[in-house]
Write a structure and sequence with these properties.
Helix content is about 30%, strand content about 20%. α2 packs parallel to α3.
Length: about 240
């Protein structure tokens, strides 16, 4: 790990965005976890709630990011109580090469690892280092015009990997046809599909949750809310 570093987002305090909480989304929702939020992204989702990690037209990159040695990040993570580590972003796989030694060291220390990704970049040799992949392909409503939001190769790699779950952010019932088309296109088992309402307030989540949950029950999908929003609201570093 000598000389390796990662670009992280900053907390409001200026410290790197490494924090302990509970996983708020997906199949491991509720699990005590330490989050490591990396900076930069290759997509531009219109409703992104972590735009400070990549949108340098609205945020100052120098103020919002910092590089930190992998050894220092590892020491911080291992000094915390949770044994589940969630590497998120931004898009973590932009820094895939430097994640290899970091995840290997986490595994050697007996940690469980999740990586949250938009599915546009191949995981390569990082694939088996990670216990759970939370893959979130972006639907049309997210925007991303002119960007390759659904690349064939990486999505097929993840679809073939049993430890990869596909989390789709849903706004309206018409989004369900796109979800089903993608599930069929990439042969994703229904049990590895997660539907989650889009929203950064409890009211927005609760308004969409009933019909999304009913769809999951009818199709054999998983349902996820956003526990951190329901508990703390749209706050950074929670």
């Amino acid at each position: 790990m000598d000389g390796q570093s990662l670009l992280l987002s900053r907390m409001a305090s200026g410290e790197p965005e490494i924090f302990s909480s509970v996983q708020g989304e997906g199949v491991s929702a509720g699990v005590a976890s330490t989050f490591v939020r990396l900076a930069t992204c290759n997509l531009r989702c219109s409703w992104c709630d972590t735009a400070y990690t990549w949108d340098w037209t609205r945020f100052d990159r120098a103020e919002q990011t910092l590089e930190r040695p992998v050894e220092a990040i590892l020491a911080d993570v291992l000094g915390r109580a949770p044994r589940n580590v969630v590497i998120t972003g931004g898009e973590p796989l932009i820094q895939r090469g430097h994640l290899l030694p970091f995840t290997a060291a986490l595994k050697d220390a007996g940690m469980r690892i999740e990586v949250e990704t938009n599915g546009t970049i191949s995981p390569g040799s990082l694939l088996p280092n990670v216990d759970q992949w939370n893959v979130s392909p972006k639907l049309r409503h997210a925007g991303n015009e002119g960007l390759d939001r659904l690349p064939e190769g990486p999505l097929r790699e993840f679809a073939a990997w049993p430890q990869a779950y596909f989390k789709f952010v849903v706004q309206e019932e018409r989004d369900l046809a796109e979800v089903e088309a993608l599930r069929e296109r990439f042969a994703i088992p229904a049990g590895r599909v997660v539907l989650m309402p889009e929203g950064t307030t409890a009211a927005a989540l609760n308004a969409r949750s009933p019909w999304i949950a009913e769809t999951c029950a009818a199709r054999g999908y998983r349902f996820s809310s956003r526990l951190h929003i329901l508990i703390w609201g749209d706050k950074r570093g929670i």
